[in-house]
Amino acid sequence: MVSRSYSNLLELASGDSPSFGRMSRRIPRIMTVAGIISDLDDDPSESVCSDPSSSSAQRDRIIIVANQLPIRAQRKSDGSKSWTFTWDDNSLLLQLKDGLGDDDLDVIYVGCLNSEVHPSEQDEVSQILLETFKCVPTFLPNDLFSRYYHGFCKQQLWPLFHYMLPLSPDLGGRFNRSLWQAYVSVNKIFADRIMEVINPEDDYVWVHDYHLMVLPTFLRKRFNRVKLGFFLHSPFPSSEIYKTLPIREEILRALLNSDLIGFHTFDYARHFLSCCSRMLGLTYESKRGYIGLEYCGRTVSIKILPVGIHMGQLQSVLSLSETEKRVQELINQFYEKGRIMLLGVDDMDIFKGISLKLLAMEQLLLQHPEWQEKVVLVQIANPARGRGKDVKEVQAETYSTVKRINETFGRPGYNPVVLIDAPLKFYEKVAYYAVAECCLVTAVRDGMNLIPYEYVISRQGNEQLDKVLGHKSSMKKSMLVISEFIGCSPSLSGAIRVNPWNIDAVADAMDLALVMADSEKQLRHEKHYRYVSTHDVGYWARSFLQDLERTCRDHSKRRCWGIGFGLSFRVVALDPNFRKLSMEHIVSAYKRTMTRAILLDYDGTLMPQGSIDKSPSQKTIQILNSLCRDKNNIVFLVSARSRQTLGEWFSQIEDMGLAAEHGYFFRLMRDVEWETCVAAADTSWKQIAEPVMQLYTETTDGSTIEDKETALVWCYEDADPDFGSCQAKELLDHLESVLANEPVTVKSGQNIVEVKPQGVSKGLVAKRLLATMEEKQLTPDFVVCIGDDRSDEDMFEVITSSMAGLTSLNPRSEVFACTVGKKPSKAKYYLDDTAEIVRLMQGLASVSEQNLTI
């Protein structure tokens, strides 16, 4: 049965805005009659989901969303065609809930089942799972699931996120738009299921992993203030790898519709931030230990914390009699015969490095023949999660390598490699952990990998296992040889870290692990045990939810707008008093006022930033002339450009005031001399600053220096964004150091570092203009101030404080401080772009022209 949302696939993939129609049947949050799902579509007002007031009686609730539910589903064997459902104790999602251990927190799961359910049974299964397990199943047709999971997720996203590029068709993974459309469609279906149970005012939503990376867009589109966290359990590749993805921006923007994005390591987070910088032009900063990305007025927080294991579950398995029995069997099999066990536990896939580990074992036996007939590598190969040619190749290579090593170094009763490729129960794996002298993880790329954590806790054991193993409680030891390229590597500082591609180095590490002194092994084990036992899955989950709550705390205080179509949709969050400037409103005020002050920025306000020819058009000159000819107006253009440039560009306008170099120079009209807002500047500091800037220009390709009369500007707009930003920070520190005793300020702006005289700002121009009008007894009853960047905020601040009665400006004056674009600002109004600014000015100029002809 195909969900209604599936019919919107082509509409969405084409870039059109998808509809979020409610499904014909909704799952209520509270069941009234067992076995009956009430139809809530008849009266939307009765829906608990749509009634925010109902939340006061609800406990705190989190909706956990992942590709697969933590549920095992099996057909009953009695021929009744009914189902048996049990919790999957090995699922991270279930362990996460147990780790939270909060009786006041309700957890609802949304995801797919591990078995196909016939459409005729889906309503009944949904009812059972919701009532019994608080799970909301997402049912997908077989073909759609195959294209989404085995197609896009496993053949395109997963290899790319593990640094594998589809360099030839034989390798697979070439971008396929139909698979991408299936991925988008499944994410949309997940969103529909969440909407059936969410109370958007109160519930938290936590989405897991790369299978659902565009889901945040669908949820944010439906509920602008949804409290939404996302955690990526796989690596995030460097920007050089990620940017090869044709739908790279769509995925980044979708992730940025989350409030909090989590990664296992700083490397993964750093790569994500670099992609946002290079592909979306976004910047990030760290505030009080929290990393935040400013995106359309919202702060998207970045969380770096590796997941942990479920201590309680592992310790309970260690206490099982089956585990104790299996440990005794392994001791008899290996240690009673004088063998030392090395252990590897990996999925059978191309990134786990099983073949590299086997080659290292072969090298160990070649280089150190003393270990022959003494050391055994037990390799447990879990079934592959994906399917395809690459899995078969890994299996074939593994089997052939094991066969060759055993034929070369094997003796009667001794095989140096024992390959276990049949599924093992968890207690059996734990028994192997407890007995192994060293655990080897040689993955060439892995998001986290909890095998080393499980090994450390298993080696800690308990009193009963200590007796079986012959350990003293104070003599616990363990050794880890782990790849540098797995997520848990930074956390395990006592492990021997290796480059798995360097076979000799891995073999040497294995030898070191075998010969290391027991006292050293004990110290390393204690260090690892302290970390793993305190940073368990509960610690991870609580920390993430605390940060999500902190990030979402100000949701209710912000006004939100949804902009963009399809997967380009995003939400702009702004101050409640910030609104779009109405043409009718300002024109009406303009008509009824008699003394007007107009302050305009130039670049980015009257002239688009992307223009190559920055000189004003004839249309702009005509509009400004019309405004200046109106005797009720005083018009001032305030720019960072030099006075020579401004004088040449606006020489046709007689009565317009100009302020150059952020207001250092100004003149009230064309035919008067330029004045300065502050005392004449001593520019001898340029002899110090310019050589420093020149040094950074030579080492930063694409950067330039602009030498103004009173200022120096280093611009890196055309440089590599990451390197340019890094160099700008260094230059800023360098200049502040060498100019510490000079009367200048060093500031960073958008792609620039600027040195200018102290006390100079555009706000100074606004103050000077208002003061000049006051001296002439021309208190303005209409003020409009428009700008686009950080330097214009000083003008807005002066205008706003004047409106509050802090200066001589009449509190009843019509004041319009307006910025360009929806973004956080001290201005009260905004217009979308320079085209709207020009239309506004043209409208005001038309009113003045009409007045002149009367």
Relevant terms:
HAD_sf; alpha,alpha-trehalose-phosphate synthase (UDP-forming); single chain; elongated; disordered N terminus; alpha/beta; phosphoprotein; nine-stranded mixed beta sheet; 854 residues; alpha,alpha-trehalose-phosphate synthase (UDP-forming) activity
Strands, helices and their partners?
Blueprint: H1 9-13, E1 60-68, E2 71-75, E3 83-87, H2 92-100, E4 105-112, H3 122-133, E5 135-137, H4 142-161, H5 177-195, E6 204-208, H6 215-222, E7 227-231, H7 239-242, H8 248-255, E8 260-263, H9 266-280, E9 284-287, E10 290-295, E11 298-304, H10 311-318, H11 321-333, E12 340-347, H12 354-367, E13 375-382, H13 389-409, E14 417-420, H14 426-435, E15 438-441, H15 451-460, H16 463-469, E16 480-483, E17 496-498, H17 503-515, H18 518-534, H19 537-551, E18 559-563, E19 570-574, E20 579-580, H20 583-592, E21 596-601, H21 618-629, E22 633-638, H22 643-649, E23 657-660, E24 665-667, E25 675-676, H23 686-699, E26 704-707, E27 712-715, H24 721-738, E28 744-749, E29 752-757, H25 762-775, E30 782-787, H26 793-803, E31 814-820, E32 829-831, H27 834-853
Parallel strand pairs: 1-4, 1-6, 4-5, 6-7, 7-8, 8-11, 12-13, 12-15, 13-14, 15-16, 16-17, 20-32, 21-22, 21-30, 22-23, 30-31, 31-32
Antiparallel strand pairs: 2-3, 9-10, 10-11, 18-19, 23-24, 24-25, 26-27, 27-29, 28-29
Helix pairs in contact: 2-19, 4-5, 5-6, 11-14, 11-16, 12-13, 12-17, 14-15, 15-18, 20-27, 21-27, 23-24, 25-26
